[in-house]
Structures are given as structure tokens and as C-alpha cells.
Specification:
With 352 residues, the protein is of the alpha/beta class. The chain has helices at residues 26-40, 68-79, 100-108, 124-131, 149-163, 181-192, 222-226, 250-257, 261-264, 287-290, 297-315, 317-324, 331-340; strands spanning 57-62, 83-87, 114-119, 137-143, 170-174, 197-201, 217-219, 231-234, 272-274. It has a five-stranded parallel sheet. Strand 1 (57-62), helix 2 (68-79) and strand 2 form a beta-alpha-beta unit. The model is unreliable at 241-245, 321-330 and 342-352 (pLDDT under 50).
């Protein structure tokens, strides 16, 4: 049964779906980040796999185009030893008029365990989560303008890796905030994790008028917005979501809000620069910054795999927990599971 106040949690407060960073308790966010940190070390191993989702089926349903998110979800699921099915939406029955819920019902009949969903309509993953069986889990890979929780979480893991503590940080989110699901996910996560100050920076046409209620400082000047910042997150201008003339031109946007090496000097000397991708060089950020020593854009991608491994292993935790306590399972496998999936209920538990 879904928690009425937060459909992402069950009656015990455990994560069963990841739909948004909004409303997630701080302990849950930290648990995901701590678990992801353990998966980062897999990159240093010759065999980059653990058997946490062995026998599980992960269906990637991307109703919008994606490169980084879809690929890293697929890599993450395979590194957890899951069976991965990538649905070709353009050639699926959805292109023939089949409803979203009918598509989900048919795929559920094929013994799906996890749905990873990207959709142009805000709320689509929530709708799916309300109609799947209790053993099926939904992970939101981006829905409309609403949320992109795994991007928000990988941004938090990146910030924590380089800056350690959120409590003294000033973070600026720069660009097309109006259409950005990443900005919303980042803001909710940053404020929950106790970030000292979050600034939203952009022209008035690209910053929602009600941003202040989210606990952020709104700046319509790039110079003011990034001054003395520890972290600068630049956002792409999402022309495909814009209606009407919100920007005079890409050149004018870059002139006023494009992050250049010269403007970056206003931030702290050890400030890091992030971007969720895809990058439009010369529009929201200059190539010299993208490729510069303060850029951590490529490490973000690496951390994204670890975060998505953490999320899928946690939401499907019941299955892994059963594997853990099967007497026939080798002690080596049980040790791997204990190392990577740290449920509070298992702390101090002796293995059979």
C-alpha cells in the first residue's frame, strides 16, 4: 500500500519508487548517496558487476530522446546483473494509439520488476506507480518540466564528493530554470540536505515568478548570482519546450548569462562547474569553462551510473534481502550484498 502523503514510500518509510526528490526525508537522500558512493568503487574493479538484481527484469521506457540517462540506466542495471529490456517507443504499440497504462499492463504481464520511465507529460511516472503491482517499482527518468530525481541525486553525489559538507555551501543554478526539471530536483535535494544558500539565476522570462517560496534567492544578474559561489550549475536553454519569444537570441543569452572563464572568476577560486547535459557550447557555457580545470561535468556522468545502481538496488531491496538470507547462497555473495546494500534493519544482523 502506497503512503498517502508520499507515494514513493511504503508504510514503513522505505523507498519503493523514486518519483521526485521533493518530499524525500533527509535520511533517505543520505542513504541513497552513501549506497551510491560504495558503487563508485566498482569502476576500479576488473569485473564491474554485483548480483543484487540477478533474475530481475528492468524495462527502460523512454518516450523522449535521451543519451546519457538511458545509457547510464542500462549500464547500471546490467552491473546489478538485471535483465534489461529497452522498449523502442517509435515501433511499439504506443505509436498505434495504445494508452500508457495499457502499455504498462502488458509489460507487467511479461514479469517486469522495475520500470524506468521518461515521459514528456509531468506526472506520468506517478500515474504508473499508482497502477502497478506492489512488487513492481517505478523510477522517474524525467517527466515534463516536473522532476528528474536521479539527475538531482547524482548532482548531490558530485557536490558531496568535491565539497564534502552542504551546510556551508552557496550553490548557483544558472539558465533556463523555467523549463528545467533538473533545477527543481536539485533545489529540493539541496534544501533538504541543508545547503546554506541556493541561488536561481536567469533572465526574468526564464525564472518562474514563485521561486522564492522554494527557499532560494532569485538573481537576474549572472554577476550577482555567481559571486562567491562554491558550485555553479549551468542549464541548457530548452528551446523545444519554449512557447513564444522568451529569448531574443542565443547570442544575447550568452552575452548576459553565458558562463565564461572571465565571469567564473567571480565565484570562489575552488568553485566547481556542473552541467546536466546536453551542453550547448557558446550558448549557456563557454568551451573554455567546459574543458577547464574547474569543470566536473564528466565526473557527473560517472557518478550517474553509481546513483542509478543505488536507486534500483534500494527500491528492489526486498528481493535482494531474500537472496541475502537464503542458506544456499555463498558467504562471498552475502558479503557483497551486505557491503553494497546497507539497510538499517540489517545492521548488526548475523548471517546464517
Amino acid at each position: 500500500m502506497l503512503n498517502q502523503r508520499n507515494p514513493q514510500l511504503n508504510q514503513h518509510g522505505e523507498l519503493i519508487h523514486l518519483l521526485s526528490t521533493e518530499g524525500l526525508p533527509k535520511d533517505t537522500l543520505i542513504h541513497i548517496l552513501d549506497t551510491a558512493q560504495k558503487f563508485v568503487s566498482l569502476n576500479d574493479r576488473e569485473v564491474k558487476k554485483v548480483p543484487l538484481l540477478r533474475g530481475k527484469s528492468v524495462f527502460n521506457l523512454f518516450f523522449e530522446n535521451s543519451t546519457r540517462t538511458r545509457t547510464t540506466f542500462e549500464i547500471a542495471a546490467k552491473r546489478l546483473s538485471a535483465d534489461v529490456i529497452n522498449l523502442d517507443i517509435a515501433r511499439s504499440s504506443a505509436s498505434k494509439g495504445e494508452s500508457l497504462l495499457d502499455t504498462i499492463a502488458n509489460l507487467s504481464a511479461m514479469a517486469a520488476d522495475i520500470f524506468v520511465v521518461r515521459h514528456s507529460e509531468s506526472g506520468a511516472p506517478y500515474l504508473i506507480a499508482q497502477h502497478v503491482a506492489p512488487h513492481v517499482h517505478v523510477v522517474n527518468a524525467g517527466d515534463g518540466r516536473h522532476a528528474h530525481p536521479t539527475q538531482g541525486l547524482l548532482d548531490m553525489l558530485t557536490i558531496r564528493h568535491y565539497k564534502k559538507d552542504f551546510s556551508n555551501l552557496t550553490v548557483a543554478i544558472v539558465g533556463d530554470v523555467l523549463h528545467s526539471r533538473v533545477a527543481r530536483s536539485d533545489i529540493h535535494a539541496l534544501t533538504t540536505l541543508g545547503c546554506a544558500e541556493v541561488r536561481v539565476v536567469g533572465p526574468k522570462t526564464l525564472v518562474p515568478s514563485n521561486m522564492a517560496h522554494m527557499g532560494v534567492r532569485v538573481c537576474h544578474s549572472l554577476e550577482e548570482g555567481i559571486k562567491d559561489c562554491d558550485v555553479v550549475i549551468t542549464l541548457r536553454a530548452q528551446n523545444e519546450r519554449m512557447t513564444g519569444a522568451l529569448l531574443p537570441s542565443s547570442q544575447e543569452f550568452f552575452k548576459g548569462f553565458g558562463l565564461t572563464h572571465e565571469k567564473l572568476q567571480l565565484a570562489k577560486p575552488d568553485a566547481i562547474v556542473m552541467h546536466p547535459g546536453p551542453i550547448n557550447r557558446g550558448v549557456e557555457i563557454d568551451s573554455k569553462v567546459v574543458d577547464g580545470k574547474q569543470s566536473v561535468i564528466l565526473p557527473q556522468v560517472t557518478f550517474g551510473i553509481a546513483v542509478r545502481m543505488a536507486v534500483m538496488s534500494i527500491v528492489a531491496g526486498d528481493g535482494a534481502r531474500k537472496i541475502l538470507f537464503k542458506g544456499a547462497v555463498s558467504s562471498t555473495l552475502r558479503q557483497i550484498l551486505m557491503k553494497f546494500v546497507m539497510w538499517p534493519s540489517l545492521q548488526g544482523t548475523s548471517l546464517p
